[in-house]
Amino acid sequence: MDKKVEEMTFEEGLSELEKLVDMLENGGLDLDKSLDIYENAVKLRDHCRAILEKSERRVQKIMETSEGIKKEDMRSE
């Protein structure tokens, strides 16, 4: 990873996470390397999740109307 996780966009984080998952799935790594990759993957997952949650809150705020909050559960889809 060239960039710090906290500085990555959602797309950059997701792309990097996919690369790490591929590395783990392909195997052939020693235990220490696998653990390092897994640790980085968890950081990326948490970062991407935080961005998605922030985006969801933003969408819900946008959906507010003058009559009140028009909230739809986006997780049920």
Number of domains: 1
What's the story with the biggest beta sheet?
A: none
**Beta-strand content:** under 5%
Q: Assign the structural class, choosing from mainly alpha, mainly beta, alpha/beta, alpha+beta, or little secondary structure.
A: mainly alpha
- Average pLDDT metric: 86
Report how far apart the termini are. Answer: 33 Å
What does the oligomeric state look like here? single chain
Instruction: Name the helix and strand elements from N-terminus to C-terminus, one letter apiece.
Output: HH
Number of helices: 2
Total beta-strand segments:
0
- Poorly predicted spans: none
State the helicity in percent bands. 55-70%
The Rg value, from CA coordinates, equals 17 Å
Can you put this structure into words, describing what you see?
Helices cover 64% and strands 0% of the residues. The protein is mainly α and 77 residues long. It has one domain. Helix 1 (10-26) runs antiparallel to helix 2 (31-62). The longest helix is centred in the middle third of the chain and has 32 residues, at 31-62. It starts with 9 loop residues before the first helix and ends in a 15-residue tail after the last helix. The model has no long low-confidence stretch (mean pLDDT 86).
